[in-house]
Structures are given as structure tokens and as C-alpha cells.
Amino acid sequence: MAFREKSAWITLVTTLVVYGIYFALAVPRLLAGRFRGFEFVAWLSTAVVMIVALQVGLTIAAAFTDPAGAQQPRDEREQLIALRANRAGFYTLEVGGFFAIVTLFWWKDVAVIANGMFFAIVLAEAVRAGFQIVDYHRCVA
Hints:
The chain is mainly alpha-helical. 86% of the residues lie in helices and 0% in strands. The protein contains 5 helices and no strands. α1 (3-31) runs antiparallel to α2 and α1 (3-31) runs antiparallel to α5.
């Protein structure tokens, strides 16, 4: 498995796990109207710090297992894979952002809209990493 594919797997798995836990804990409190101010910032900051620590640590570990692959510049195939994945992630972010803004008509709550936008960002990142993984497998096969 190529280093950049490992990196995409690291991104996908850590994004789904960390932010899956965040949203599983936050959404019930959010819909009950008990997720405000400092609590929201503390939970979000904790999730971001956790994902950064996990992704940096796991990427360093992956680089130690394949130091040559980690130092190689992207070839044309990898650039195309990244471009396709970024496009899919961007479209996902656009649609998710639109729906997050539309929630303003049902919930006039800043915390709901902020978490909706954050969910759109997380979903776009997961889609981007997923597209990279699929494209790496498609190019190898």
C-alpha cells in the first residue's frame, strides 16, 4: 500500500471515529437545547486536538514504516487522484453547507447551525479521503 493511500486511510478512520463520537455525544444535547457556549467550545476543541494528535502520530508511524514512500513527490497519477478527491469533497461541502444554512428556518439556534456546518466539513473530509482510497484501488487493479 502506498504511503499516500495509508495517509488517506488514517484520515478516513480517525475522522469517522473521533467526530463520530463527538456527534454521537453532541447531537442529543444539541437537540435538547443544552449545548451552549463553553461546553460547545470545549467539546469541539477536544475533538480537534484529538484528531490532530492521532493523525500526526499515525502519519509519523506510517512514514517510519515506508520512509522512501513518504519522501517521494507526487507523481501525475497521485495528483489526479488528489484532484478528483478534492472535487468530490468540495461538492459535498457545498451541499452540506447549504443544508446547514437552511436549518436556520427550523432552528434559530447558532449552535445547531455551527454544528451543521462542522458536520458538513467533517463529511466533506471523509468523502475526500474515501475517494482517494477508491481511486488508489482503481488505479492498482
